[in-house]
Amino acid sequence: MNDGPASPPPSPARELASDEILRDGGAVRVRAVRPDDADRIQSHFRRLSKRSIYLRYFNQRRELPVVEIEQMTHVDHVGRVTLLAVERREAVEDVIGIGLYERVDGRPQRAEVAFSVLDAHHGRGIGTVLLEHLARIARRHGIEEFQATVLGENRKMLEVFAFSGFEVDRSLEDGVFRVRFPTHETLESFEAAFERKVEATTASVGRGLPAPSDPSRGSSSGSEE
User: Fold this and answer.
1) How far apart are CA 144 and CA 188, in angstroms?
2) Cβ contact 36:75 at 8 Å
3) In 118-166, which ranges are E strands?
4) Contact 29/40 with Cβ under 8 angstroms?
5) Using an 8 Å Cβ cutoff, are 198 and 215 in contact?
6) Residues whose CB falls within 8 Å of the CB of residue 31, separated by 6 or more in sequence, listed in order
7) CA angle, corner 111, sides to 58 and 224, nearest 5?
8) What is the pTM of this model?
9) Residue ranges per domain, the chain?
């Protein structure tokens, strides 16, 4: 008989696998990262344009350092979360978007959030979908505020935050925006998510794809927009 303390229940984020319809009517799966995703994440990075790399990392690099990939793939799904937006091609998963957050040291109720999306998939709403999932997970684990550091020229990422419906506060210093916003759901964020899903559902019908029965929820099995 084990009289030790009970282990905490696993984070629901660990099992996340949600099929989402995007702005253009295409489909993507948002799922939790796994340790075996290291090569997929490196492949994602290698296909980013030089500009996307600069906007995301504020510098140029040819590859992601192994230590950074390990930090992204070995997470606790509570204080550090990485979500992947993937397309499946002949049983092979292609990572087209990454969203992550990590609790700020000394501020357990605040987390830094960041995204990267392959250039060919900009404008499809992938960053917005990832943000919605990350905010939902953060709320569940007591994270009350997100913060992000965004270059002033990264207009698309700034628009993702501005049109999210969250109560965004931002300040500009030396060409860099410091963005902060509460993760709690607002009427505006609910309406923004609902409108996105209605638009996506309409686009999917136009493409002859099956649409979710309830556009306010979608369907679930488990450096820019």
Assistant:
1) 17
2) no
3) 145-151
4) no
5) yes
6) 16, 17, 18, 83, 84, 86, 222
7) 40
8) 0.85
9) 12-205
For the record, the structure tokens of 107 come out as: 């501020």
pLDDT in tens, 180-189: 999 999 999 8
Q: Which residues pair with 169 in a beta bridge?
A: 180
Taking the C-alpha atoms of residue 210 and residue 224, their distance in angstroms, rounded to an integer, is 27
Nearest to 149 by CA among 177, 175, 107: 177
Place of tokens 């019908």: 205
Q: What is the largest CA-CA distance in the chain?
A: 60
Which among 27, 35, 33, 38 has a CA at the least distance from the CA of 14? 33
Residues 50-108 have pLDDT tens digits of: 999 999 999 999 999 999 999 999 999 999 999 999 998 888 899 999 999 999 999 99
The CATH code belonging to domain 12-205 is 3.40.630.30
Phi, psi of 120 (to 5 degrees): -65, -15
In angstroms, the Cα distances linking 130 to 9, 33, 208 are 24, 13, 25
Token pair of 139, please?
A: 């709320």
Q: What does the alpha-carbon distance between residue 121 and residue 47 come to, in Å, rounded to a whole number? A: 11
Burial of 66 per CB tally in 10 Å (0-12, 13-18, 19+): exposed
Helix (H) / strand (E) element for 210: namely none
* DSSP β-bridge partners for residue 94: 87
